[in-house]
């Protein structure tokens, strides 16, 4: 009997242990890991389309693609009839999933600012982004909603923030989302306040010093490892050690170079030191693109374009208003109010337009000159991706090149083309499903498959521009604003509170925190807020648009013109 | 649909041939040539071929070159400004008092409109310098005013010797000693900063020589800073030292003598007239203002005769601008030394041509109208030292970079696509007259045209 009791107890203990290891009551698993997309148009790769086919994915891999795919018994059939399936986008460089650090704008306290510790100077090239990645961070889901499945992420920082890794944006904190670790060294021409290096020339000099030092230390280290007797042990700092794979040309450096001069400086640095380089977040690359091609330097274009010029916007608004059938008399009145322009203003606007055209045709020019490129989301907003690409296409970029930049070119640049970038059997189940061809106006992403996990999105209703029946954005709160007037930047706080059916706007300028100014003629139309302010006889007209927790617009000061105004939400209304 | 091709607005924006600097062919006919080294040649032609002066004489054949009729005009070598901060995006790496490793040539700005304004004042070459916040500042860059090029590399004057900025006096003392409690805090401290740096560089040289010869089996710590200081000790870099007071000028000459350095050109050197013989004996040069002083205590004891006194004592002297405004009329600045010092026409014009070229080590290339030298010229209506003079053409490497008759109002190369176009002039542009009258005309006389 004793033996039986003992064996029963042992079995019970063992089975309990077995149970506790298996059941996680917090997590609700998926019914199946197999999905069948039925009757879809598949854009396998740029220019290769299968009309009316199907895609079967299972266990995170694309099992079959084509026109005759059988539905297995365990697959969930996705109602994606007549929708368009693309390979999920791949981002060339961003901070997705890397938390923003608290704002410490004060100068770091250092005894000798001319010779600061590496961390203070922003020199941490060996910091691994894999340790900082948080799959639950809101930026990850924002990227996914924009169509991205994979991103090359890097740490935040100044001159040398650290190593980058390629991650799958599945948002699953438990799963291993790291595709490739420590694939790049990230660099920027950004200085740390008040310490050396404090200028661009300081950064470049420090770079050369660090690189050359690391080269000698590496040599020393190799000799020491081979025969240490009688040899001084090498003293290698973390920063120097981080450069070893770069010096051996095993790891490329990704440098953010937004403007023409930045690119020129990065090219000179590469020429002098000899490392492999990728330029990222390129906004003004049209003057340097041939040189970049000649030196085989891959390019990541920026996804930020200059703000649409007022005329273009006015044309757009006019069209939309005409469609809504707005009162024609009101239109005429508004036009008469527009100030007459002097010849000099007209000439200045012409030059501004030429520069603006150069920026927005950048991608089209690169395509025409046969220079492959991908995109980097690092200083841009994921939700603006579709609109930005459409502007580039309107300026001459072909849809084929746009899709290539978002998928196949990015995969090649990041050396993951064997597992991602196209909708082909055997590749990762990373798919983007939109209800219309993605580059068409009004197309919306309905499903995302990232690493085989399904994410569905409801069709969003178009925001009505007119009356109260349209969606109104919740704008209540306390905002900090920044107005750029000639000669200075004015800052302050703006409180918006609901006042019955309307809104109350109270402005407190930083110049005089005791004085509160109340806005008049407050009107909210969709997400567009307008109001006026009477400052000792001078009427200021405000016109801003709200999106997320920010607003962006202009303040017009009568005959002096209008100036940009931006703001960020600080807190909810008290 | 937007046009894919970018249209070129400016008349002389050359097609970008990357890696190659544009060289031109020009025949300037019948001008009054001020050669500097060979006197004045009235009604004479000068021919530039492939960017170099190929002939000076009468009735030269153009041979396909562009022609300019300079009858009645004065042709002189392009003006050289030995002290400028135009065309660079960073001036002072002021976080450390010793920064010889930084180089303003790493941050050239081909879009700086000051370069065009300098061309409009006949200046073809300038010495883009590091600032005076540090005792040992950064390396400088001699640039040619090839306004219109987009690639910063094309601004460089290839082959020009390396130069570096040193600074004495109040600026380094205030930036570091007063500002951050970091040496130097006094003129004695500045001297020791130099001595310490040179001593460290000497040791560095010894260590690396030992490693290269095999005496040491591990490489010493590499240091960009010490590399540059070692190059100074080896005589490969010309020192340009910001200085005012006579005592500190003599101090630096003593320090340099101790370390065997001889290539030095003092800048500003307002009290240079006190130690002119000592400067001449050392072989030191001086680049001064015509008449700018009393803006700081150390600049109190000065005189407008400074340039003339230094020149007459055998010191190679030049007049510089250190300003985006003075660079537009250096010919008038030079002319002041005729009023204060009675220098001859040639001696005066030497102050802004051959002498600054010597100070920058480029006198074999520019600074006078001689066969074989670079085709850098400035053409004036009326003699350049006359108050009625107006620059007409400025030519760099045989390419017209400034033409007073053919220019547009907006000569900018790089326009911000998000700039706000104000409806009135900002205060700093100085058109306060217009701003005051804004709106009044409309009220009194109805709508403006």
Could you please say which CATH topology of the largest domain in chain B applies here? TIM Barrel
Number of strands of chain B: 16
Low-confidence stretches of chain B: 1-18, 427-449
Give the amount of beta strand of chain B, in percent: 15-25%
Cα radius of gyration of chain B in angstroms: 24 Å
Shape of chain B: globular
Give an overview in words:
The complex is a heterodimer of chains A (574) and B (449). Chain A is of the alpha+beta class and 574 residues long. Chain A folds into 3 domains: 30-88 and 421-460, Urease, subunit C, domain 1; 89-101 and 112-308 and 343-418, TIM Barrel, CATH 3.20.20.140; 477-571, Beta Barrel (Lipocalin), CATH 2.40.128. Chain A is 28% helix and 30% strand. Chain A is built from 14 helices and 25 strands. Chain A has helices at residues 2-22, 138-146, 200-226, 238-242, 244-247, 260-273, 289-294, 310-324, 328-337, 343-360, 362-368, 385-394, 399-406, 408-413; strands spanning 34-45, 48-58, 61-66, 76-78, 84-87, 89-94, 148-153, 162-168, 178-188, 253-256, 277-282, 299-302, 373-376, 431-434, 445-450, 453-456, 477-485, 488-499, 502-509, 517-518, 520-525, 528-535, 538-547, 550-557, 562-571. Residues 464-470 of chain A have low confidence and may be disordered. The two termini of chain B are 33 Å apart. Residues 1-18 and 427-449 of chain B have low confidence and may be disordered. In chain B, β7 (123-128) and β8 form a beta hairpin. Chain B is 26% helix and 22% strand. Chain B has 449 residues and is of the alpha/beta class. In chain B, strands 1, 2, 3, 4, 5, 14, 15 and 16 form an 8-stranded mixed β-sheet that branches. In chain B, strands 6-7-8-9-10-11-12-13 form an 8-stranded mixed β-sheet. Chain B has 2 domains: 1-77 and 368-412, Urease, subunit C, domain 1, CATH 2.30.40.10; 79-366, Metal-dependent hydrolases (TIM Barrel, Alpha-Beta Barrel), CATH 3.20.20. Chains A and B meet through α3, α6, α7, α10 and α11 of A and loops of B.
């Amino acid at each position: 009997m004793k033996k039986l009791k003992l064996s029963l107890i042992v079995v019970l203990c063992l089975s309990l242990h077995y149970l506790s290891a298996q059941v996680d009551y917090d997590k609700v698993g998926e019914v199946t890991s197999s999905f069948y997309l039925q009757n879809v148009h598949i854009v396998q790769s740029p220019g290769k389309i299968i009309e009316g086919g199907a895609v079967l994915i299972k266990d995170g891999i694309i099992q079959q693609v084509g026109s005759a795919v059988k539905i297995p018994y365990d697959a969930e059939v996705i109602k994606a009839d007549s929708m368009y399936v693309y390979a999920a986008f791949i981002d060339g460089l961003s901070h997705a999933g890397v938390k923003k650090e608290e704002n410490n704008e004060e100068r770091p306290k250092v005894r000798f600012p001319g010779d600061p510790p590496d961390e203070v100077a922003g020199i941490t090239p060996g910091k691994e982004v894999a340790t900082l990645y948080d799959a639950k961070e809101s930026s990850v889901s924002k990227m996914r909603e924009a169509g991205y499945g994979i991103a090359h992420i890097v740490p935040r920082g100044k001159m040398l923030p650290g190593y980058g890794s390629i991650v799958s944006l599945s948002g699953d904190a438990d799963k291993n989302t790291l595709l490739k670790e420590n694939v790049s060294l990230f660099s920027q021409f950004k200085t740390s306040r008040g310490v050396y290096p404090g200028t661009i020339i300081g950064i470049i000099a420090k770079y050369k010093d660090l690189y050359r030092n690391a080269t000698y230390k590496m040599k020393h280290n190799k000799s020491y490892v081979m025969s240490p007797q009688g040899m001084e042990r090498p003293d290698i700092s973390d920063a120097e050690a981080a450069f070893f794979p770069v010096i051996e040309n095993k790891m490329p450096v990704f440098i953010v170079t937004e403007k023409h001069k930045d690119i020129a400086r990065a090219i000179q640095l590469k020429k002098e030191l000899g490392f492999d380089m990728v330029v990222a977040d390129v906004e003004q690359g049209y003057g340097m693109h041939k040189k970049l091609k000649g030196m085989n330097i891959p390019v990541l274009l920026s996804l930020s374009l200059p703000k649409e010029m007022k005329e273009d916007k006015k044309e757009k608004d006019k069209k939309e208003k005409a469609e809504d059938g707005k009162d024609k008399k009101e239109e005429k009145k508004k036009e008469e109010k527009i100030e007459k322009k002097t010849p000099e203003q007209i000439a200045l606007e012409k030059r501004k337009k030429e520069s603006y055209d150069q920026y927005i045709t950048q991608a089209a020019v690169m395509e025409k000159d046969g220079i492959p490129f991908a995109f980097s989301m690092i200083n841009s907003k994921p939700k603006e991706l579709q609109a930005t690409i459409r502007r580039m296409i309107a300026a001459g970029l072909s849809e084929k090149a746009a899709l290539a930049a978002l998928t196949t070119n990015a995969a090649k640049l990041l050396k993951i083309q064997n597992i991602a970038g196209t909708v082909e059997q055997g590749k990762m189940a990373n798919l983007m499903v939109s209800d219309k061809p993605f580059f068409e106006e009004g197309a919306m992403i309905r499903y995302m498959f990232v690493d085989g996990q399904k994410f569905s999105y409801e069709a969003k209703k178009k925001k009505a521009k007119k009356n109260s029946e349209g969606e109104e954005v919740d704008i209540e709160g306390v905002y900090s604003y920044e107005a750029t007037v000639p000669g200075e930047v004015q800052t302050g706080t703006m409180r918006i509170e609901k006042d019955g059916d309307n809104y109350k706007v109270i402005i407190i300028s930083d110049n005089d925190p005791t004085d509160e100014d109340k806005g008049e003629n407050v009107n909210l139309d969709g997400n567009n807020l307008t109001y006026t302010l009477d400052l000792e006889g001078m009427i200021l007209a405000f016109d801003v648009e709200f999106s997320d927790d920010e607003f962006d617009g202009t303040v017009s000061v009568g005959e002096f013109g209008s100036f940009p105004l931006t703001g960020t939400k600080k807190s909810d209304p008290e | 649909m937007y046009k894919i091709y970018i249209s070129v607005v400016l008349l002389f924006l050359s097609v970008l041939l990357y890696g190659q600097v544009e060289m031109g062919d020009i025949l300037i006919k019948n001008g009054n040539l001020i050669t500097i080294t060979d006197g004045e040649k009235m009604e004479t032609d000068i021919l530039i071929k492939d960017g170099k002066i190929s002939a000076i004489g009468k009735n030269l054949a153009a041979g396909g070159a562009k022609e300019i009729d300079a009858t009645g005009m004065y042709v002189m070598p392009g003006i050289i400004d030995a002290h400028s901060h135009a065309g660079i995006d960073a001036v002072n790496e002021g976080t450390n008092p010793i920064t010889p490793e930084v180089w303003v040539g790493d941050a050239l700005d081909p879009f700086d409109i000051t370069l065009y304004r300098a061309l409009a004042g006949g200046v073809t070459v300038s010495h883009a310098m590091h600032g005076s916040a540090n005792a040992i500042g950064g390396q400088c860059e001699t640039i040619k005013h090839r306004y219109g090029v987009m690639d910063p590399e094309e601004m460089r004057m290839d082959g020009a010797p390396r130069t570096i900025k040193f600074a004495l006096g109040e600026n380094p003392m205030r930036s570091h000693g007063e500002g951050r409690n970091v040496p130097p805090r006094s003129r004695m401290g500045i001297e020791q900063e130099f001595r310490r740096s040179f001593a460290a560089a000497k040791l560095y040289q010894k260590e690396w020589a030992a490693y290269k010869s095999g005496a040491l089996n591990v490489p010493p710590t590499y240091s960009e800073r010490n590399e540059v200081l070692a190059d100074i000790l080896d005589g490969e870099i010309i020192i340009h030292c910001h200085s005012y007071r006579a005592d500190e000028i003599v101090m630096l000459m003593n320090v340099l003598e101790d370390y065997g350095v001889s290539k030095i050109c003092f800048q500003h050197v307002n009290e240079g007239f006190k130690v002119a013989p000592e400067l001449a004996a050392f072989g030191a040069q001086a680049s001064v203002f015509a008449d700018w002083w009393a803006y700081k205590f150390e600049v109190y004891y000065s005189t407008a005769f400074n340039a003339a006194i230094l020149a007459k004592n055998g010191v190679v002297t030049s007049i510089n601008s250190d300003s985006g405004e003075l660079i537009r009329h250096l010919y008038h600045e030079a002319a002041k030394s005729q009023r204060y010092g009675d220098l001859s026409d040639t001696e005066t014009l030497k102050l802004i041509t051959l002498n600054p070229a010597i100070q920058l080590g480029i006198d074999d290339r520019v600074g006078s109208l001689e066969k074989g030298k670079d085709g850098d010229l400035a053409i004036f209506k009326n003699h350049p030292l006359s108050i009625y003079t107006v620059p007409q053409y400025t030519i760099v490497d045989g390419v017209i970079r400034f033409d007073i008759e053919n220019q547009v109002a907006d000569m900018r190369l790089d326009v911000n696509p998000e700039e706000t176009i104000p409806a009135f002039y900002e205060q700093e542009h100085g058109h306060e007259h217009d701003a005051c009258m804004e709106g009044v005309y409309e009220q009194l006389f109805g709508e403006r045209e």
